[in-house]
Design brief:
By secondary structure, this protein is of the alpha/beta class. It is built from seven helices and seven strands. It has one domain (2-206): Vaccinia Virus protein VP39 (Rossmann fold). The chain has helices spanning 2-8, 14-33, 45-59, 79-85, 98-111, 141-148, 173-177, and strands at residues 67-71, 90-95, 116-120, 132-136, 163-169, 184-187, 200-206. A seven-stranded mixed beta sheet has the order 3-2-1-4-5-7-6, with helices on one face. α2 runs antiparallel to α5 (98-111).
Amino acid sequence: MIALITKYFPTLSERQQEQFAALYDLYAEWNAKINVVSRKDFDQLYLRHILHSLAIAKVCHFEDGAKVLDVGCGGGFPSVPLAILFPNVEFVSADSIGKKITVVKGVCEGAGITNIDARNTRVEQINEQFDYVVSRAVTEMATFVGWIWNKIRRGQKGSLPNGILYLKGGDLEAELAATKLKWQQTNISDFFEEEFFQTKKVVYTAR
């Protein structure tokens, strides 16, 4: 299963490979107690959750020292895979459902991921500034932008100017237009060949 990750990220360190490999058993153990990954697609964990999360890294490479907020992180996607890939980037993983944050903390502890601050909170209650905000289809974009726009500082702490990187699928034109912002849509199928990614996108806007 780790082969799916190294196929697209061939320069992972031995430590990173160990951490990615550890995720299956850790999520299996936690999922048995607290269902955060749908049981029917758990066998597809590396494809549908881990690799999907890493699509963000194909669009923007975060610099060391960057600060990234994952909104509505659920069981830790996209922040857990991204934190392994970018060990010198500081992640805050936020979710309003406490048991999901329990899973994120447990997985991080088990895999030795030390650059995630997992918080059981609503994003509106976070009063900090971040370089990037990431998320995976939490709510419609206009609502999402309203939650987080004032939490993104201007500047550039990666290969793109600071902003929002959002994993979403399908036809997004109307939804993105409603935000009155300028968006860049990247098809994930441009860099991952698996059929699952055919309709999936990373959408980005700069602050």
